[in-house]
Amino acid sequence: MRGTPGKTAQHGQGVVEYGLILVLAVVVVLVVLQALGVSLQDVFCRVAGGLGGGVCTAGKYCTESFDSLENWANSTGWTIQEGKACNTKDGELRMYNTCSQKNKIPKDYVVTVDSAVLYKGNGYGVFFRQQSTNPTTGYVFQYDPGYKGFIFRKWVNGWELSPPFAVKAAPNFDWWNTNHKIKVEVKGSTFRAYVDDELVLTGTDTTYTEGGVGLRTWDSTRVCLDDLAISDIP
Question: What pTM was computed for the model?
Fold first, then answer.
């Protein structure tokens, strides 16, 4: 005579069913969060921090400590001096981070240069969302003495468009012979630039939705830069 399932078997079956339902609910929540544009890493970091998990840092896609220029294309006119990338020639110089060009970085990211010192000349720029490097197509953030402040400018097929699509005057800014941290946050069609963690410029443009990173100098500029990173937006 065949026996009937006992309470233990029924209980075990119930636990498995509840577990499957819980997993399905979690998957649904994650899909909804991604559809809404919520960073799952950010959610994890917040939960971990709330549970005493310490500091949770955003993921980094490309980092550059400038021990060499092997990760930079078109770097003629640049050299490594005391662990920093420094330009040594006058005129228009543009070099491009090959990690950000070859690897699949996200559409939205933060580009950070922890150390930048301008010794002479008019300034330097940080390219972002580059569609191509030859000819240069994308966006750039820079200090521009012609506008006496900070600008976002668009490049199309090797030409920089005028006027810039965002300008903020900073006539008394201490730019030369001073170490600064530069950060450009790229999110959707909105771009924010920070100097020493202070917001200095906000701009919007919808032309380019993704792309790589580069650096630019012009005229008689002499600048040294160190510790560049492309990371998730915190």
Answer: 0.76
pLDDT digits (tens, 9 = 90+) for 7-40: 555 555 566 666 667 667 755 655 554 454 444 4
* Residues in CB range of 141: below 8 A, 6 or more apart: 125, 126, 128, 150, 151, 152, 182, 184, 191, 193, 201
Cβ(94)–Cβ(219) under 8 Å? Answer: no
Gyration radius of the chain's alpha carbons: 24
SS3 annotation, the chain: CCCCCCHHHHHHHHHHHHHHHHHHHHHHHHHHHHHCCCCHHHHHHHHHHHCCCCCCCCCEEEEECCCCCCCEECCCCEEEECCEEEECCCCCEEEEEHHHHHCCCCCCEEEEEEEEEEEECCCEEEEEEEEEECCEEEEEEEEECCCCEEEEEEEECCEECCCCCEEEECCCCCCECCEEEEEEEEECCEEEEEECCEEEEEEECCCCCCCEEEEEECCCCEEEEEEEEEECCC
